[in-house]
Amino acid sequence: PYRRQRQMCIRDRNGVMKILIVEDEPSLREIMAQTLRREQYVVEEAADYASGLDKIAAYDYDCILLDIMLPVMDGWAVCAKIRETDKTPIIMLTAKGEVFDKVLGLELGADDYVVKPFSLPVLLAKIQALLRRGRGMVWGEAVEAGGIRLEPDRRRALAGGQALSLAPME
Fold this sequence. Notes:
alpha/beta; four-stranded antiparallel beta sheet; 5 helices; 9 strands
Protein backbone atom coordinates (compact mmCIF):
# COMPACT_ATOMS: atom_id res chain seq x y z
CA PRO A 1 0.00 0.00 0.00
CA TYR A 2 2.97 2.37 0.26
CA ARG A 3 4.52 4.10 -2.68
CA ARG A 4 7.96 3.00 -3.78
CA GLN A 5 9.60 6.31 -2.81
CA ARG A 6 8.58 5.80 0.83
CA GLN A 7 9.95 2.29 1.17
CA MET A 8 13.36 3.50 2.32
CA CYS A 9 11.97 5.85 4.98
CA ILE A 10 11.88 5.14 8.69
CA ARG A 11 8.54 3.84 9.87
CA ASP A 12 7.16 3.05 13.28
CA ARG A 13 6.35 -0.54 14.22
CA ASN A 14 3.11 -0.34 12.22
CA GLY A 15 4.81 1.01 9.09
CA VAL A 16 3.27 4.48 9.48
CA MET A 17 5.04 7.81 8.97
CA LYS A 18 4.06 10.50 11.50
CA ILE A 19 3.97 14.21 10.72
CA LEU A 20 3.25 17.13 13.04
CA ILE A 21 1.74 20.31 11.60
CA VAL A 22 2.25 23.42 13.75
CA GLU A 23 0.12 26.07 12.03
CA ASP A 24 -2.16 28.70 13.59
CA GLU A 25 -4.40 29.15 10.53
CA PRO A 26 -7.12 26.47 10.93
CA SER A 27 -8.15 26.23 7.26
CA LEU A 28 -4.57 25.76 6.01
CA ARG A 29 -3.78 23.31 8.81
CA GLU A 30 -6.87 21.24 7.93
CA ILE A 31 -6.12 21.20 4.18
CA MET A 32 -2.55 20.04 4.82
CA ALA A 33 -3.72 17.42 7.33
CA GLN A 34 -6.36 16.01 4.96
CA THR A 35 -3.88 15.86 2.09
CA LEU A 36 -1.25 14.09 4.19
CA ARG A 37 -3.79 11.62 5.59
CA ARG A 38 -4.84 10.73 2.04
CA GLU A 39 -1.18 9.89 1.44
CA GLN A 40 -1.29 7.45 4.39
CA TYR A 41 0.59 9.62 6.90
CA VAL A 42 -0.50 9.81 10.51
CA VAL A 43 -0.96 13.52 11.19
CA GLU A 44 -1.01 15.42 14.48
CA GLU A 45 -1.96 19.09 14.58
CA ALA A 46 -0.99 21.98 16.84
CA ALA A 47 -2.36 25.53 16.61
CA ASP A 48 0.37 27.22 18.65
CA TYR A 49 3.94 26.85 19.83
CA ALA A 50 3.06 25.47 23.29
CA SER A 51 0.94 22.58 22.08
CA GLY A 52 3.47 21.91 19.31
CA LEU A 53 6.36 21.66 21.77
CA ASP A 54 4.25 19.50 24.11
CA LYS A 55 3.51 17.07 21.26
CA ILE A 56 7.16 16.97 20.20
CA ALA A 57 8.19 16.16 23.77
CA ALA A 58 5.60 13.39 24.04
CA TYR A 59 5.79 11.70 20.62
CA ASP A 60 8.26 10.81 17.90
CA TYR A 61 7.59 12.36 14.49
CA ASP A 62 9.20 11.72 11.14
CA CYS A 63 8.73 15.34 10.00
CA ILE A 64 7.51 18.64 11.44
CA LEU A 65 5.78 21.31 9.32
CA LEU A 66 6.29 24.56 11.21
CA ASP A 67 4.67 27.94 10.50
CA ILE A 68 6.89 30.95 11.22
CA MET A 69 4.14 33.44 12.03
CA LEU A 70 2.83 31.80 15.22
CA PRO A 71 1.37 33.91 18.02
CA VAL A 72 3.47 34.52 21.17
CA MET A 73 6.57 32.52 20.10
CA ASP A 74 7.43 32.62 16.39
CA GLY A 75 8.45 29.60 14.36
CA TRP A 76 12.10 30.61 14.32
CA ALA A 77 12.25 30.46 18.12
CA VAL A 78 10.30 27.19 18.11
CA CYS A 79 12.71 25.72 15.54
CA ALA A 80 15.72 26.71 17.65
CA LYS A 81 14.05 25.23 20.75
CA ILE A 82 13.33 21.94 18.94
CA ARG A 83 16.94 21.74 17.75
CA GLU A 84 18.21 21.88 21.34
CA THR A 85 17.13 18.25 21.81
CA ASP A 86 15.65 16.87 18.59
CA LYS A 87 16.89 16.16 15.06
CA THR A 88 13.48 15.51 13.46
CA PRO A 89 13.36 17.08 9.98
CA ILE A 90 11.61 20.48 9.96
CA ILE A 91 10.03 22.23 6.99
CA MET A 92 9.31 25.91 7.68
CA LEU A 93 6.06 27.28 6.21
CA THR A 94 5.72 31.04 5.79
CA ALA A 95 4.59 33.99 3.75
CA LYS A 96 8.04 35.51 4.35
CA GLY A 97 9.88 34.86 1.11
CA GLU A 98 12.87 37.16 1.42
CA VAL A 99 16.35 35.65 1.16
CA PHE A 100 17.16 36.81 4.70
CA ASP A 101 14.13 34.95 6.10
CA LYS A 102 15.01 31.74 4.26
CA VAL A 103 18.64 31.86 5.38
CA LEU A 104 17.62 32.56 8.99
CA GLY A 105 15.24 29.58 9.03
CA LEU A 106 17.88 27.26 7.62
CA GLU A 107 20.56 28.57 9.99
CA LEU A 108 18.27 27.97 12.97
CA GLY A 109 17.96 24.32 12.01
CA ALA A 110 15.17 24.00 9.45
CA ASP A 111 15.77 21.41 6.75
CA ASP A 112 13.65 23.12 4.10
CA TYR A 113 11.66 26.31 3.64
CA VAL A 114 8.34 26.63 1.78
CA VAL A 115 6.83 30.01 0.93
CA LYS A 116 3.03 30.48 1.10
CA PRO A 117 1.01 30.18 -0.99
CA PHE A 118 2.40 26.81 -2.00
CA SER A 119 1.31 23.84 -4.05
CA LEU A 120 0.30 20.79 -1.99
CA PRO A 121 1.92 18.37 -4.50
CA VAL A 122 5.19 20.32 -4.15
CA LEU A 123 4.94 20.17 -0.35
CA LEU A 124 4.32 16.40 -0.52
CA ALA A 125 7.32 15.96 -2.81
CA LYS A 126 9.50 17.99 -0.43
CA ILE A 127 8.37 15.88 2.55
CA GLN A 128 9.08 12.63 0.69
CA ALA A 129 12.50 13.85 -0.50
CA LEU A 130 13.43 15.08 2.97
CA LEU A 131 12.44 11.78 4.57
CA ARG A 132 14.39 9.77 1.98
CA ARG A 133 17.46 11.96 2.28
CA GLY A 134 17.34 12.44 6.03
CA ARG A 135 16.65 8.92 7.13
CA GLY A 136 18.00 6.85 4.27
CA MET A 137 17.52 3.35 5.64
CA VAL A 138 15.52 1.38 8.16
CA TRP A 139 17.16 1.50 11.57
CA GLY A 140 16.70 -0.88 14.43
CA GLU A 141 15.03 -0.30 17.74
CA ALA A 142 16.53 1.96 20.38
CA VAL A 143 19.32 0.40 22.45
CA GLU A 144 19.98 1.06 26.13
CA ALA A 145 23.00 0.05 28.22
CA GLY A 146 24.82 1.52 31.19
CA GLY A 147 22.47 4.49 31.48
CA ILE A 148 22.99 5.47 27.82
CA ARG A 149 20.12 5.22 25.34
CA LEU A 150 20.78 5.33 21.60
CA GLU A 151 17.85 6.18 19.32
CA PRO A 152 19.24 5.73 15.81
CA ASP A 153 15.97 6.58 14.05
CA ARG A 154 15.91 9.99 15.79
CA ARG A 155 19.68 10.32 15.58
CA ARG A 156 20.12 11.09 19.24
CA ALA A 157 21.69 9.72 22.40
CA LEU A 158 20.49 10.23 25.95
CA ALA A 159 22.32 9.86 29.25
CA GLY A 160 20.10 9.68 32.30
CA GLY A 161 17.16 10.82 30.17
CA GLN A 162 18.95 13.99 29.02
CA ALA A 163 19.83 14.46 25.33
CA LEU A 164 23.56 14.55 24.61
CA SER A 165 24.98 17.18 22.31
CA LEU A 166 26.89 15.24 19.68
CA ALA A 167 28.49 16.10 16.36
CA PRO A 168 26.76 14.68 13.25
CA MET A 169 29.35 11.90 12.82
CA GLU A 170 28.98 10.88 16.45
